[in-house]
Amino acid sequence: MGSSIRTKIFEISTSSHTDFVNVTPLVKTFVMDSGIKSGLCVIYVPHTTAAVFINEGADPDVVKDIAYKLNSLIQWEDPNYKHIEGNSAAHIKSAIIGNSRVIPVSDGKLLLGTWEAIFFAEFDGPRRRKLIVTLIGE
């Protein structure tokens, strides 16, 4: 059996200015339906004011704490920002968190830790966004 590449683009709707959407079920279903048993899952966000991260998904207060601390460290308004669109804070948060993640796949499953979940991070919403998931494997 040879290598295979499968890509799916998901549309994610965010409901607030800063919003974290648990996309783990979407990605897990795509991996399961793909037939790929072993390989890599690459998750990519093609937006400069959004990101993707992995963290605890069991306790919703964890992502609330992450949002709280990001918002307190990176203020939305700052007289020293130069970006004319007025969303410099969203760009900074996105740059810090990052726009991609790679997760190993084994036996047709994502090798996430027991409490780990995949979150789409919105920093300039609400909006409709894209999440690109590419599977590389066999």
Automatic annotation (TrEMBL):
Homology family: Belongs to the UPF0047 family.
Domain of life: Bacteria
Matches recorded under InterPro entries: UPF0047_YjbQ-like (IPR001602), YjbQ-like_sf (IPR035917)
Coiled coil stretches, renumbered: none
Pfam families: YjbQ (PF01894)
Classification via PANTHER family: UNCHARACTERIZED PROTEIN YJBQ-RELATED, UPF0047 PROTEIN C4A8.02C
SUPFAM superfamilies to which the protein is assigned, alphabetical: YjbQ-like
Name of the protein this chain belongs to: YjbQ family protein
